[in-house]
Write a structure and sequence with these properties.
By secondary structure, the protein is of the alpha+beta class. The protein is built from 12 helices and 23 strands. Strand 15 (321-324) and strand 16 form a beta hairpin. It starts with a strand and ends in a 6-residue tail after the last strand. The model has no long low-confidence stretch (mean pLDDT 94).
Length: 412
């Protein structure tokens, strides 16, 4: 059991206050802080602190995979930590994106290797050969676009903003309100010639302004406001049109959102804990200055419409543990809610089923494992190896919240 120093990632859409404030550091920060990686991805591994020295978690795992990960994890996933835990803070919208399936990731990675595209190239789509199912759990109110909306509701939305230039596109979808119709419309919009886009987008934004002026409290207010916000942040970007096709989702603190391969999404604003399979594969479709590969994105997208459900946590008996159920075998995430003033929930004992990462997001805790003990303040994380004993998490402050990340169900 050792303190874990996360790898801080700075992207333009990040926050200059959220992650630093959670970690008890001064704000604002010199640069936007977007993600804190707590894992062993080769692109940016966290570091284990032992006896005042800091070592890469990737090196620690590589030197003793069975001792750090356990024989069951190695048998199922190989000699690598199968999940990646993150803190995420979005001050501005992330890119419109999707992640490949396992088969697509293997094929794409091999193809780009054969083409001698460097792993750190800005034109690289596949930085590893793994898929990336992910779960995001809100720490603040968290806004997102995720999954294609029912085409019939999208036709209703396009009609409601009353833009003559959109009539032919709405007719395309109304005539085929299914996954094929969504594919046809999305492909049309995302590949529009720039002169056409330069004419269509302003008309759509004007229609959105008229809708909000005349229809406060109506059905599509959140969707229309999002289009206007994206249009301001990314002028002339086809992703603004694509956002009209997606579900608009709001998560309150503690609620989650699970996304499997092929789901088009964009996180808009808020702070969250995110866990995913240990991968950095992203196919972008817009709302970004980064590399966009539309043909490759179209290969991985799932155009089946669905109302992606908000994922509520489930309390384990009467304990302090609240779990999030997903089908991902690589990871499982739970939330511990402990308080020194609550005799029934002032501590929690995490069983010896490492590897495990514990991340404190509120209050403060004291961890005890065997003869070892350490304090876990807000914003800090701990690495628990498979060789470690059970860990007791004791609340030191009221309303202490600790997230626990472990490997999901074994597949071997």
């Amino acid at each position: 059991m050792h303190l874990l120093e996360g790898a801080l990632r700075s992207y333009a859409w990040g926050s200059r206050t959220a992650i630093a404030a959670l970690r008890g550091l001064s704000v604002p920060t010199p640069h936007p802080e977007a993600e804190l990686w707590l894992g062993a991805h080769p692109g940016d591994p966290a570091h284990v602190v032992t006896g005042g020295e800091s070592r890469s978690l990737l090196d620690v795992v590589n030197e003793d995979p069975v001792g750090q990960l356990g024989s069951d994890t190695v048998a199922s996933f190989g000699e690598r930590l199968p999940f990646l835990l993150k803190l995420l803070a979005a001050e501005e919208p992330l890119s419109l994106q999707a992640h490949p399936s396992a088969e697509q990731a293997q094929e794409g990675y091999a193809k780009e290797n054969a083409a001698d595209i460097a792993l750190d190239s800005s034109y690289r789509n596949y930085r590893d050969s793994y898929h990336k199912p992910e779960l995001v759990v809100a720490l603040s109110r968290f806004e997102a676009l995720a999954g294609f909306r029912d085409p019939r509701r999208t036709v209703k939305l396009l009609s409601a903003i009353d833009v003559p230039e959109l009539e032919s596109y709405a007719g395309l979808l109304a005539g085929q309100p299914d996954s094929d119709g969504l594919r046809a419309l999305f492909t049309t919009w995302i590949t529009l010639p720039q002169p056409v886009l330069a004419s269509l987008l302003p008309a759509v934004l004007e229609g959105c302004v008229r809708y909000l002026s005349a229809a406060s409290g109506s059905e599509f207010v959140a969707e229309v406001r999002t289009v206007l916000e994206l249009g301001e942040a990314y002028p002339g970007d086809a992703g603004v049109l694509a956002s009209l096709l997606l579900n608009r989702i709001t998560l309150e603190p503690g609620q989650g959102l699970y996304l499997d391969a092929g789901n088009l999404h964009a996180y808009l604003h808020g702070m969250a804990v995110e866990i995913m399979a240990n991968s950095d594969n992203v196919l972008r479709g817009g709302l970004t200055p980064k590399h966009v590969d539309v043909p490759e994105l179209l290969k991985v997208l799932d155009f089946e419409s669905l109302e992606i459900p908000v994922l509520e946590s489930e309390q384990v008996g009467e304990s302090a543990e609240f779990t999030y159920s997903t089908p991902a075998p690589e990871f499982a995430l739970s939330r511990l809610e402990i308080d020194p003033n609550d005799p029934d929930r002032n501590s929690y004992t995490a069983p010896a089923e490492g590897p495990r990462i514990l991340l404190c997001t509120s209050g403060g805790a004291r961890l005890t494992s065997g003869d070892g003990q350490l304090d876990l303040p807000k914003g800090a994380a701990v690495w628990v190896s498979a060789d470690d004993r059970a860990v007791t998490v004791e609340a030191l402050e009221p309303n202490t919240q600790v997230f626990s990340a472990v490997v999901g169900r074994f597949v071997a």
